[in-house]
Each structure stands twice: as C-alpha cells, then as structure tokens.
Amino acid sequence: MVLITGATGNLGSSVIDQLLKITAPDKFVALARNEEKASSLKIKGVEVRMGNFDDPASLETAFAGIEKLVLISTMEQNRFEQHKNVVDAALKTDIKHIVYTGLGIRDIQTSHVKDLMIDHFQTEDYIKEKGLTYTFLRNTMYADAIPLIAGEKIVEQGIFLPGGDGKVPYALRREMGEATANLLFQDGHENKTYDITGSNVYSYHDIANGLQAITGKEIQYINADADAFHDILKEAGVPDFPIYLLSGTVADIKNHQYEIKSDILEKLLGRPTAPLNEFLKEVYQLK
C-alpha cells in the first residue's frame, strides 16, 4: 500500500490523478490535513487519511499498514522539522520505502537560497541515516512557476530580471506528478537519486522569444542589475522574505545552478517533456 502526502496540493494532486489512470484506487491512500479540501478525492474513490506534519501522533495513525510513502516536500519555515516527524513516524509504523521530492540544483552550498533550500538535502541525509529504502526525486524548477518569477504580465510588460543568460530545464508540475506516480509501481528505483529535469533548457531570452512567437507581440527581456532590482522591489513595499527568495532564485539561475541534464523524467514519462511554446501556452493560458 502506498501513501501520498500533500494530496490536495498541486504536485500531490497530479500524482493522484495519474495513479487513478494506471492503478485501482484501493492500491493507494492520500494524506491530507484539511478534510474539506480532500472531499474531491473521496468522490473519486480514494481513501483519505487525516494527518498533520506538526502532529507526530496523527502521522503514526495515518501510516498504519503503509509500505511505501511519497513525501512531497512542504514550503513551511520549519520544513526540516516537519520532514523529520514524517520519517520518524514512518520508522515507528514499519514503512519500508520513502520517495522524497526534493530540489534539483548543482551545488546547494553556493546557492543564494541555501538557508531556505538546504533542508531538502538534510531530509535526504536523515532518511539515509535512519536506514530506510529511498528514492530521491530532485525536481527542477516548475514551468508553472515562471509567472510567479518573471511576472503574470510578461506579454504587456516584458521581463525585467537579473537572470543573465542562465537556463533552466523547466518541466510542468503535472509531468513531474505523472512521472512520480509511474515509478511507484515499478521495480529498480530503490536507493536511487534522480535529477528530474525537462528535455531542454531555456533562458529568459528564450521565454521572451517564445511568448513573442505565440502572441505576435514584441516582448523584451531586460537583464537587470541585481542591486537595482533589489531596490525596486524594496521601494515597491515587497516584504523581505519574498525579496530574498525571488532575488536568490534568479541569482542561482544566472549562475547556471539549474543547468542539469538528465533523461530520467523522459524515461518515466515515456516521452519528451513539453517544449517551450507548449508549456508557455499552458502556464500563461494562451491559445
């Protein structure tokens, strides 16, 4: 029996949607902390167990009878503590195998968002330390996140970011969810670490050109000065944490931290990932 955490979130929902296509709903269960949000899963015939990463007792109850657990990483400030609670509960309930969705980056030690993202690697180390069988899925940046970083109004305003000529092997969140579901009932993924990346890498120049080809409008990418970009955000009243996350992420892109090449996602999907113009149409809801 497989359990998927974060079942009502974006990635968790994608995993479950694919599982419903490839296996019976009695082969897996979903973990959620909000019963109302989980109601749609119950309608689909999925068993939902309630649990909260900050409540170890609830996790132990939810994990009863589970053999393999998909730990979808959280975005909370105490993420590592939450993940430790999950791993500890897994040990107490005799779960054999954890599939963990972490971060695909070249060198976390030199990342500009190290303080926030290093807990992905701490989680991996903790799972190994406890002797559990593991599969680590180091996910690249979601194509779905492009509007959050480059802006919702690229078509009207262009791209103004200090991203240099750095590139990212973007993939859609739904593609990663599909791939994660596919490997759950396959053999040979035990104690493996996979970089989950798109088939091609794209820069902000490429994104601007792609949107220009789709819309027929002139769209520019301005490679901004990092300090000026920071000051603009500060003057606009953006809080410190979003500035840190946005500026640091874009700095990592500029420094080629995400330029990792792997064919694992293609193999798990059985096809290449969506090309640039296709995923841009999807994330910007363009025809």
UniProtKB/TrEMBL annotation:
Key words of the record: Oxidoreductase
CDD domains according to UniProt: TMR_SDR_a (cd05269)
Statement: the UniProt record of this protein carries the keyword Oxidoreductase: yes
Database matches in InterPro entries: NAD(P)-bd_dom_sf (IPR036291), NmrA-like (IPR008030), NmrA-type_oxidoreductase (IPR052718)
Superkingdom field: Bacteria
Gene3D superfamilies recorded: NAD(P)-binding Rossmann-like Domain (3.40.50.720), UDP-galactose 4-epimerase, domain 1 (3.90.25.10)
Keyword RNA-binding: no
GO MF term set: NAD(P)H dehydrogenase (quinone) activity
EC number, UniProt record: 1.6.5.2
Annotated transmembrane regions: none
Residues of the NmrA-like domain: 2-238
Pfam families: NmrA (PF05368)
UniProt cross-references to PANTHER family, sorted A to Z: NMRA-LIKE DOMAIN-CONTAINING PROTEIN, QUINONE OXIDOREDUCTASE 2
Name under which the protein is recorded: Quinone oxidoreductase 2
Natural source organism: Chryseobacterium carnipullorum
